[in-house]
Write the structure tokens for this entry.
Amino acid sequence: MDILTTIPVRLKGPDSIAPLLQNVRERITRRAYEKFVERGAVYGHDLDDWLDADRELILKPFGEVHAEGTDVFVEMILPEIALPNIAVHIAPRQFVISSDPDDDGVQLCQIAISIILPFVSQGVH
């Protein structure tokens, strides 16, 4: 049985997207290197290490986006874990839904690109 829950989120502007994605990239890079070392520092599996680290650390749930007037709704199925500080980062043609890493290092980071948001066509201020 599905449980529908509305979660309040922080709204952030376009300047927050690049630092967020840089932080995510750095976390994945560190974890991929740890996997490389754990595997005995054998070269040739860097893509596997990267993809494994990405799957281990970053949640990317499927979401549906729809607009009604000036309201935008994002519906996602999230895992039953606490995701601290969920935020929506909005730019004119993309948005990112993110959270801070939890105690196990798992973080929500879903990127939607090339969408048209009705109320941000002039930019977010």
In short: Confidence is low (pLDDT under 50) at residues 121-125. The radius of gyration is 17 Å.
